[in-house]
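Recall the central idea of this unit: under ordinary conditions, the amino acid sequence of a chain determines the structure it adopts. In this exercise we apply that idea directly, starting from the sequence alone.
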Amino acid sequence: MQRTLIPIGPYQVLGFCLAISAFELLTYMASDLIMPAMLSVTHELQADARHVPNAFNLYLLGGVCLQWLIGPLSDHWGRRRVLLVGCALFAAACAAVFISQSIAVFNLLRLLQGMGIGFVVAVSYPALQEVFCEADAVRLMALLGNIALLSPLIGPLLGVVLLQWLSWRELFLGLGVAALLVWLGLFAWMPETVGVTRHDGHRQASIGFSWQQTWQRYRALLGNRRFLAASLALGLMSLPLIAWIGLAPLLLMQVLNLTPIQYGLWQIPIFSAVIVGNLILDRLLPTHSLPRVVRLALWPFCAGLLALIGCALSGAGIAPVVASLSVYAVGLGMSNAALYRLALFASDDSKGLVSASVGMLSITVMGLGGGLIATIGAGARLELFALFAAFSGLMCLPLLQGLRTRRSRTSASDQ
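Accordingly, the structure predicted from this sequence is:
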């Protein structure tokens, strides 16, 4: 890995990367670890089973609620201070579940916990982009993606094991304690990237905050068609996977009557495939441009989703559906970090605000899209899930084609 752009030592770099990785892992583990117990949560709180996907989608939408403000505030106050606030909020929201007594309070706390995703996307991701050069930043983003994927990969199985000794309330309390430890790590090792002169002579200056200027900057960004295409494509490409995470407990444990252990085991091929895609991305980066990587990723991406449509039409069982999702997941892993980088640098505005906008748009697509897929009955039959998930993912193709066309025109105009 090349030297950092911010003047910090190797031990601080290592501690910073570990703390950021741990915080991202916890924000996802807070969802995946509890998924095997969600039917027990709804039963204990005397709520309908429809709250299983609803709670997950609320968690995703929580990631959107404050991003519009978090990004500009981190440009003004600095990334470090804002991320510490976000980590503290996440820890408190996790610990508070221990005393929740109704599904309404539980869902509200899920929304607050989901805001942790917003701090990861709007603060920690730009900080990484500002500390490291482009190639290393994309590699680290892919590595963070792999670490985050450990959550849905091992989270359900780990949740099943821990639930043999702990209640779901105690699991959330443990997540809160772990988040407190991560806060201490961020406090000790996270550098400030705003207002610091880099090794290349560039200075990431802080930006004054005002409501009017913030609104004008967002309005200008939303008028950037290339940025919009990349951000919305990010959300649509991830939507089949998000729909699977939210509906798998219903599809596998309620519809197919599988055990929690079997539910956890069926997650392994899909999320292992995303990790394989991220490893392929790391191999391609030295010799391929980011747009070229995204184009290559579309081969397994589209093949998996088309196979998923075939599964829906033929009434195939769980094994072909998981195999199709796994092929799609390889393409998703190859493209996600590269497309995020393209979206982030589609605008010259400060990266805190741009990253917040990328997160808001992509997570809104995932949250609302996942909620719509659940509402129209995809959790009732495996075939319906396969059909709706596949078509939702393929909707990204016109956006990616438009992104490619606009990039070609921009390159031609620069010559």
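Residues 225-255 form the longest helix (31 residues).
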